[in-house]
Design a protein that fits this description.
Elements: H1 3-20, H2 24-38, E1 44-50, E2 58-65, E3 73-75, H3 79-87, E4 91-93, E5 111-119, E6 122-131, H4 139-159
Antiparallel strand pairs: 1-2, 1-6, 2-3, 4-5, 5-6
């Protein structure tokens, strides 16, 4: 199946999940499972959310699919996750071994994409995906993951 068709199907499924999910947490669980199961190069998929009121700000592991990670709390000044949350911009790393910001979670991880989740214009968390393949995240992947993060952000806005 062509990647464009698969991505369009997944976008549609995420939209349906958002409409049916009674809570943001249920939606995030569904998004993690869907991306992990349907996108073969997505070996770890999870959400980190900013801990309300934490000083200094810290990302806390929320729902995820994949192996357990030692990084359940990440300060905003650390790692690729911290960089994405601090800058409010998507970060794609084709080779994590060449990025000094990378916080090693798995020896198998070769590439990573981290997309901020916005609520009312402010970063509330992020969607983090690791792959065992180098340069696993192309333009289509970036658009898909950004779409998923946007859908979760809208659901969070509705619940506030």
């Amino acid at each position: 199946m062509a990647i464009a068709i698969r991505i369009e199907e997944i976008r549609h499924e995420v939209t349906l999940l958002a409409e049916a999910a009674p809570t943001t947490n249920v939606l995030m669980q569904g998004v993690c499972k869907l991306l992990h199961d349907r996108m073969l190069k997505y070996n770890w998929v999870g959400f980190y959310m900013l801990e309300p009121g934490a000083r200094p700000p810290v990302l806390v592991l929320d729902t995820f699919v994949g192996a357990m990670t030692p990084h359940t709390r990440i300060p905003l000044n650390q790692g690729i996750c911290g960089a994405a949350a601090s800058s409010g911009k998507t970060v794609v790393v084709d080779d994590v071994s060449k990025d000094p910001r990378y916080l090693a979670c798995s020896l198998e991880t070769k590439s990573e994409i981290v997309v901020p989740v916005f609520v009312k214009g402010h970063v509330a968390g992020e969607l983090d995906i690791d792959s065992h393949f180098p340069a696993a995240f192309g333009a289509e992947d970036k658009e898909l993951v950004q779409f998923c993060a946007e859908v979760v952000g809208k659901k969070l806005e509705q619940s506030k």
